[in-house]
Design goal:
Length: 210
């Protein structure tokens, strides 16, 4: 049963916060990597992305939290299905966020994500690049406008007692206070920086070595 619904876009610190949630007992946390590890799970997400009626409790069975895409695209639906769950919104400076997105996720976007592409790439294309950014991510002003409008939408829709608005640079205290748990005696995670992402992409042959 979900305890935390992630409403945050990727490249806002979601990997670090995912690790933090799991450290605090709110794991497993569903994130985009699940599309890479289970073909059946990815196929079900594709069905949802193509307009199929989702069974959210079945699709997210076994997860205590979600973060980033693909689930963040459906944050309203998830918040309604799991009314006791907190809604987590991670915020980042818009210009910094766009630069990171363009250097990482968009740069490694598959060249072809049509029906012949693998299922996970189709899901990402439909939910992120088309569903979220309407195929206009390269238009910086448009993409940042979408990002800012999303922040406002979540803030307006979710009651203050349910919404957790968080910046990873603030560390454990505000997140733990909002979740009602103690502060662990370990450093707050820092993971999947732009350099780390690009290094992995180079090692995997997705990008040429710098």
């Amino acid at each position: 049963m979900l305890k935390v619904v992630g409403a945050s876009y990727g490249r806002t610190g979601t990997t670090s916060v995912r690790l933090a949630l799991e450290t605090l007992g709110f794991g497993p946390c569903h994130y985009m990597r699940e599309l890479f590890t289970s073909p059946a799970h990815a196929q079900e997400w594709l069905r949802v992305a193509e307009g199929g009626a989702p069974d959210w409790k079945r699709l997210l069975d076994g997860f205590a939290s979600t973060i980033a895409w693909p689930a963040a695209f459906y944050w309203r639906e998830l918040a309604a299905v799991f009314p006791e769950a907190k809604v987590l919104l991670i915020v980042r400076d818009p210009a910094s966020w766009y630069a990171s997105m363009r250097r990482t996720l968009y740069r490694t976007r598959p060249a072809g994500a049509g029906p012949a592409a693998n299922v996970r790439d189709q899901v990402i294309e439909k939910i992120v690049w088309q569903g979220t950014f309407s195929g206009r991510f390269e238009d910086r002003d448009h993409a940042i406008g979408v990002y800012l409008a999303h922040l406002d939408e979540v803030r307006e829709a979710v009651p203050s007692g349910r919404l957790i608005e968080f910046e990873p640079s603030h560390g454990w205290e505000p997140l733990c206070a909002a979740l009602g748990v103690g502060v662990p005696d370990v450093p707050f995670p820092t993971a999947n920086t732009t350099d780390e992402y690009l290094r992995r992409a180079e090692q995997a042959g997705v990008l040429p070595p710098r």
